[in-house]
Amino acid sequence: MSEPVIPIVRSVADLRAQMATLCAAQETTALVPTMGALHEGHLDLIRQAKEVADRCVVSIFVNPTQFGENEDFGQYPRNEARDIAAASLAGADLIYAPDATEMYPPGHVTRITVPGLADVLEGEHRPDFFTGVATVVSKLLLQVLPHVAIFGEKDFQQLQVIRRMVADLNIPVAIHGAPTVREADGLALSSRNSYLTPEQRVIAPILFRALIEASQAFEQGLSAANLAGKVSDALGAAGFEKPDYVAFCHAETLSMVETFAELSGQPGRVVAAVRLGRTRLIDNVAVGSVT
């Protein structure tokens, strides 16, 4: 692996020194927060960042506070040298790669919660997840102070939680959502796709196809309960476990809807989480107006 060609900072003090230089040059900045294991979806976020700002900062930090007990923190894929090289080629201008002690110094006790939005769907099945996400993202935003931060729509609930947090706390950053990047067969790109066996990789895109069909049927009048059952049956027949959830919701508030009419012309989403072997896949598809 070739040597990094962009600056790498690992402390808040060094990061702020770099950001002060950009501010003095009156350059706009965009932040792309990541946990590393960069794939084409991340690289697309970096490229989009360079379209809306002069400079792009990429953070690489596997955040321990968003992993629950018995989850995959220890096994989460890590290859910093590869990530830095890929980010550089995609156009990143600065890498911020703190360690856990830098992000959570001894005595750190403050946590950010977003009640309501963070309590349903993923929040119901991973109770500490969004507290960890909201806390680390708030810290990254305040450390970098970018003009824009870009997040992928694959983690749609996460995006809405972050938007709500930023609005509620008056953090001066625009949050941009970027469309999900997919493989040619429809599988949403994810760092955890590396856990799939070759046989499971063939099966995995069925989730996306099932959600597309469910979205179309929902718009045509079938109920959410009916379609959730159909999706669960289709996934089970393909080899998935029973889904943690298949739900139809208002895109902004994540409030559940049973019929398409309940959206009242507002954008919706059908969202799902399901396990295939040791891999937990999440995905979502727009319903009605595009967000």
Short description:
This protein has 10 helices and 9 strands. It is α/β, with parallel strands linked by helices and 291 residues long. It folds into 2 domains: 8-178, 3-Layer(aba) Sandwich (Rossmann fold); 191-284, Pantoate-beta-alanine ligase, C-terminal domain (Pantoate--beta-alanine Ligase, Chain: A,domain 2).
Describe the protein's architecture and organization:
Helix 6 (129-144) crosses helix 7 (156-168) and helix 9 (206-219) packs antiparallel against helix 10 (224-238). The model has no long low-confidence stretch (mean pLDDT 96). The radius of gyration is 19 Å and the shape is globular. It has 2 domains: 8-178, HUPs (Rossmann fold, 3-Layer(aba) Sandwich); 191-284, Pantoate-beta-alanine ligase, C-terminal domain (Pantoate--beta-alanine Ligase, Chain: A,domain 2, 2-Layer Sandwich). The chain has 291 residues and is an alpha/beta fold. Helices cover 37% and strands 18% of the residues. A 6-stranded parallel sheet has the order 1-4-3-2-5-6, with helices on both faces. Strands 7-8-9 form a 3-stranded antiparallel sheet, covered by helices on one side. The protein contains 10 helices and 9 strands.
